[in-house]
Amino acid sequence: MNQWHLFLAFFRVVMLGIMAIDFFRESYEGAGLVQMVCLAAASALLMFGKWRFHPAYVIALALVYGAVFLSP
């Protein structure tokens, strides 16, 4: 890899880290700590546990959960 590719890879990692931190901060402020921890734990179990759900299905389930239980 040349210098340009290393810079772009580093830039992507930094941007994804900023997005993840921002996601957790907004989710903590919006839904609360208990909801955030429960959704994160359920997502981790579904993706990395026994069933190995595809991340797209986990995101879809989280959106449905949010629409049903967290909408005002």
Low-confidence stretches: none
Question: Distance between the terminal alpha carbons, to the nearest Å?
Answer: 50 Å
Helix proportion: over 70%
Strand element count: 0
Find the structural class using helix and strand composition. Answer: mainly alpha
Strand and helix order: HHH
Average pLDDT, all residues: 91
Coarse shape: extended
Largest sheet: none
Rg from C-alpha positions?
16 Å
Percentage beta strand: under 5%
Q: Tell me the number of helical segments per DSSP (H or I, 4 or more residues long).
A: 3
What does the model show?
- The protein is mostly helical and 72 residues long.
- 83% of the residues lie in helices and 0% in strands.
- It is built from 3 helices and no strands.
- Helix 2 (33-48) packs antiparallel against helix 3 (55-70).
- The longest helix is centred in the N-terminal third of the chain and has 28 residues, at 3-30.
- It is extended.
- The model has no long low-confidence stretch (mean pLDDT 91).
What is the element layout, followed by pairings?
Layout: H1 3-30, H2 33-48, H3 55-70
